[in-house]
Amino acid sequence: MTALLEISGLRVSYPGVDEPVEVVHGVDLVVPQGRKVALVGESGSGKSVTARSVLQLDPDATIAGSIRLGGQELVGAAPKIVRGIRGSGAGLVFQDPLTSLNPVMRIGWQIMQPLVIRGVSKKEARERGIALLDRLGVVNAAARFDDYPHQFSGGMRQRVVIAIAIIAEPALLIADEPTTALDVQVQAQVLELLHEVADERGMGVLLITHDLAIVAGFADDVVVMRHGEVVESAPVDELFAAPKHPYTRGLLGAIPRLDSDPSVRLTSVADYVDTFETVDDEPAAPAAENGAAR
Amino acid sequence: MSLLAVTEVTKRFAGQHAPAVDSVSFTLERGSALGLVGESGSGKSTTARLVAGLIKPDAGSVVLDGTELVGAPRATLQAARRELQFVFQDPFSSLNPRMRVSELVGEGLLVHGIERDAAKRRDRVVETLESVGLDSSHLDRYPRSFSGGQRQRIAIARAIAVRPRVLICDEPVSSLDVSVQAQVLNLLGDLREKLDLALLFIAHDLAVVRYLCDRVAVMNGGRIVEIGSRDQVYEHPQDAYTRALLDAVPVPDPARERARRSALAASRSVTAPGVNS
């Protein structure tokens, strides 16, 4: 299995008040060709920053280390090369389909863009866009192609966002909390769809999430991040069967499950990481919550 | 007598064909917790707002401890609002950004004339903050300096400061990280026990509701399609919609999820051959 995405020693910092603040401290991560990797952590863990640095979406971020996509080094690469991989090298699905679509542009126009800017004719781009939207389960795709985002529900909007991300046939799909804004049922549909489309096209997927529950049915490998560092990475079965790091155990214990005894208290990450064992009391220090704001 | 009895409450918004809430009835006993579950648009939040008196029903009755609230005079409603407190979904928009924590949590005590003395009110605010895992060092800070989980604690403190008997929570954890969600769920469970609070808990996630509630009502299209004890609804769901909601809850177990996916694929290839080639 060759590596599609290979991140090593990644450091990302942003301008601070006096000096730059480093938020990702040397992350290593590999997405093999056609595999699905979940990058898991709480808000503020650096998981989104890591994912976004692949496409270098934040102009004020300083990126050091190495990011190789399909063998090509992206750290320090010319802007033209980075622009070129956006869409066709790696596509990105954002969390909130309400804000990631342009509200004043028809959805069809937005779906066609990645093709049109690569020189595909409008006619062909339109045909491929409609076919893709249809594959993604949008009923009556041809008629809805010229609708505006507000005419779609949340789940349907997220399908439009997915269409934009994959229409230029990227080898890697980065999905940043793609279902967090959705209802449980719609979440299940969208995840299943991502799973199918990735398998059909042999796409590698990097799924960013705070919810280990959705990882179990989706990912082949799991990477757990905390405070800008990778604390554990393992194949999915291994991670759920025998989580090694206390933080991972804390994340797993925080999930309300349908198959557990509801009278057993949920754990939180603070229970595990501060004491390395379960404690009954609510942690007094809200350390685990710092930066939990979204 | 039930603490809260909601009977055939109906609400249709102007310009809509179907009622948002259609003849909904349930009761809530003292110190118990009822989960109201459904997707977006099922009418669960509207039901919560009708019960809290934030909007007026077209028909039906809401009786709190023997007192009818629908069409009641202002003074009765004001008194009822002390007993029925509300925690909203999004702690980023539910807390006034220009009020300090002391004002946010103390406002109810002032409005309801419970504690007019500033020093005593402050003591009571601190006591309330401590019961939700915050402390007096947070009194003079503004909401912006808190994380999502901490903000939801402030919102809960604001609600329980006036010692209500019913706490209505509208998706209080759906905008939080899973690990922070666990802390807030634990907190709500603790407060329910300590303060003998009845909870009306609105959520779209059945796993969350199962953890906190002893009774569950499932809403779809403005109606309650199934209501019963936790064991009844989760172990023996009667309604197809309830089963669909249960099936959609992800299970944090890779082997079971794989089995579920392959069962799904198999059932699909039987019903629609060739669609998924």
From TrEMBL, chain A:
It is a peripheral membrane protein. Keywords: ATP-binding, Cell membrane, Membrane, Nucleotide-binding, Transport. One of its GO terms (molecular function) is ATP binding. PROSITE patterns: ABC_TRANSPORTER_1, ABC_TRANSPORTER_2. Belongs to the ABC transporter superfamily. Its main location: membrane. It is found in: Cell membrane. This is ABC transporter ATP-binding protein. The keyword Acetylation does not apply. Residues 5-252 form the ABC transporter domain. InterPro entries: AAA+_ATPase, ABC_Ni/Peptide_Import, ABC_transporter-like_ATP-bd, ABC_transporter-like_CS, Oligopep_ABC_C, P-loop_NTPase. Pfam families: ABC_tran, oligo_HPY. It comes from Herbiconiux daphne. SUPFAM superfamilies: P-loop containing nucleoside triphosphate hydrolases.
UniProtKB/TrEMBL annotation, chain B:
GO terms for molecular function: ATP binding. InterPro entries: AAA+_ATPase, ABC_transp_ATP-bind, ABC_transporter-like_ATP-bd, ABC_transporter-like_CS, Oligopep_ABC_C, P-loop_NTPase. Residues 4-246 form the ABC transporter domain. Keywords: ATP-binding, Nucleotide-binding, Transport. Signal peptide: none annotated. It comes from the Bacteria. SMART domains: AAA. Pfam families: ABC_tran (PF00005), oligo_HPY (PF08352). SUPFAM superfamilies: P-loop containing nucleoside triphosphate hydrolases (SSF52540). Belongs to the ABC transporter superfamily. This is ATP-binding cassette domain-containing protein.
